[in-house]
Amino acid sequence: MRIGIFLAYWPWFTLDEQVELAQLGDELGLDSVWISEAWGQDAVSVLGLLAGKTERIGLGSGLFQIPARPPTATAMAAASLDVISNGRMRVGLGVSGPQVSEGWYGVPFTKPLTRTREYVEIVRRALAREAPLEYAGDAFTLPLPDGLGKPLKLLAKPVQERIPIYLGAIGPKAVEQVGEIADGWLPFMFNPENPSILLDRLEAGLERAGRPREAIDVAPVVPVSIAGDVEAARDGGRAWLAFYLGAMGAKEKNFYVDLADAYGHGDAARECQRLMLEGDRRGAAEALTPEMIDASAICTTPDRLAERVAAYEAAGADTLVAVPSGDKAAVVRALAEVGAKAAV
């Protein structure tokens, strides 16, 4: 199993931390570094910086938000970053949720599956430099009819023949769609003790599309905290989980709360969400039970890190995308050591 690092966005990681940790991961031989965006720092700018600060490590968007930019703009960014990094780019995409899509971008959160499928199709066709690009779908039309626009071809040529496209999805139908159309999958709250809840849907999508399991890089995004005792380590993972359960979705539509409920932790997830929506971040984090934290993150003592990492590989992960918490550099070094030992 490969190991990458997820360096999110400000203020979870400062710009200096993103650069330093990406360079450390590059030096230690980790697989990839992923940059995300919410409603602050964008991912394109930081990935461009990291492309010039690193030499080997793969660079991924985890995720580019679909409502943030037209699919052709994403194709332009991906092609540019692929050239700047000499062929190291991976495109992660996600529709986000109604709060961000409608509240920040002013884009209706309607037909997310259709929107995602068409978006991926257009990005792929643009990156393949089809001449000229035309598309007639339910969500996207290129060029607009009855106007002055004309079909165009991407001027920039990526280094890679095919830049891989990952999707961030945990809703049942969305995960099936990953299996049908994506090259990789970036799920959050992937539980290695109960992987079938998500993996069964992925395999259903693969089967529907006639694709082998090897067609998908299963790359769960996992908060990792290491401390001298387990409770202290769990405290290092609470903030991430509370943020996703409480802030990344509306009260009536939060895919992370739904997934926690499917794992049997619905009461804790809903209490966390309630407190977060009321502005009580500390209370929300404290509402998470040890069992729920352990199901969604690696919060452990140093001597059990290898065991916890191995559980994800045994559950079907191809790449572990770790979100380092606490002493972040120490976590990156410890993960690299575990990966190196496992490769021997």
Can you tell me about this structure?
By secondary structure, the protein is α/β, with parallel strands linked by helices. 47% of the residues lie in helices and 14% in strands. The chain is built from 14 helices and 13 strands. The protein has helices spanning 15-28, 43-53, 71-84, 98-103, 112-127, 172-181, 196-209, 230-247, 255-262, 266-277, 281-286, 290-296, 305-315, 328-343; strands at 2-6, 32-35, 58-61, 64-65, 89-94, 135-136, 141-142, 165-167, 184-185, 217-218, 221-226, 298-300, 319-324. Strands 1, 2, 3, 4, 5, 8, 9, 10, 11, 12 and 13 form an eleven-stranded parallel β-sheet that branches. The chain is globular, with a radius of gyration of 20 Å. The protein starts with a strand and ends with a helix. The model has no long low-confidence stretch (mean pLDDT 95).
Silhouette: globular
Main structural class: alpha/beta
**Percentage of β-strand residues:** 5-15%
**Cα distance spanning the termini:** 12 Å
Please name the defining characteristics of this protein.
globular; eleven-stranded parallel sheet; alpha/beta; two-stranded antiparallel ribbon; 14 helices; 344 residues
